[in-house]
Amino acid sequence: MTDLDQPYPLAAEAIARFRRDGFIKLKNVLSPATLAHYGAEVTRLTLALNTDHRPLAERSTYDRAFLQLMNLWEKSPLVGRFVMGQRLGRIAAELLEVDGVRLYHDQSLYKEPGGGLTPAHADQYYWPLASDRTITAWIPLQPVPPEMGPLGFYARSQSVEFGRDLGISDESEDRISANMARHGFEFVSGAFELGEVSFHLGWTFHKAGANHSQRPRSVMTIIYMDAAMRLLPALNAVQANDREQWCPGANEGEVIDTRKNPLIWHRR
What we know:
- By secondary structure, this protein is α+β, with helices and mostly antiparallel strands.
- The protein has helices at 12-21, 32-49, 61-65, 77-83, 86-96, 170-182, 237-246, and strands at residues 23-26, 67-70, 100-111, 118-121, 134-140, 151-154, 187-188, 197-201, 206-208, 217-226, 263-266.
- It is 28% helix and 22% strand.
- It holds the Pfam family PhyH.
- Keywords: Dioxygenase, Oxidoreductase.
């Protein structure tokens, strides 16, 4: 599984495109063997630790979107090895144009057959972080054709302030999608090949379709932040919860350097 730590050839043009669009999809980031080896453990833990066994029809829009398990790296050495991989961390740092990145948290997103859409939103609504130097790697553990609900992005939306106060909900889907259409932001969506990984900024608006297939869509995500990121006072209840869950012991105004936020990659 050597590709987990080997540098990925990231062109200057790709970094410029990410800076402009707020997201990028990169092919052949991880090998099928690596994804199979670590992905099996991610999926196993997700299903084993999930506590929501209600039928899809009885769940909210948010809960129909996916089963969601976080910080699996703390529950399995195998997943921990995957999350601490140098290749993904280096890509994240180079795209953010920072010297290094820490872990904010990881997150498994398992969209069941028949699972609903993931409404439009920006991730950083949930995060009490002092800058926009945050990035999520979205790592499908199998190919994701259009019918399985691949992630899509509103290109260049990272500077839009409308919608930043909306969490994932029916309201966010309606209001953000309408605002993006009104202002002409292109929605870029399409299949993911096996080994293809997307990266998006914390303030880039995005969403994913429903899973109309008979197979689950298993995805692992890793959220990175600038290694020098500082903690902000929480602006809402969800940010207060995130602060306690993912940055325990960090102090407002100081660099977030806790046991849950290890340094993953740094330029030597």
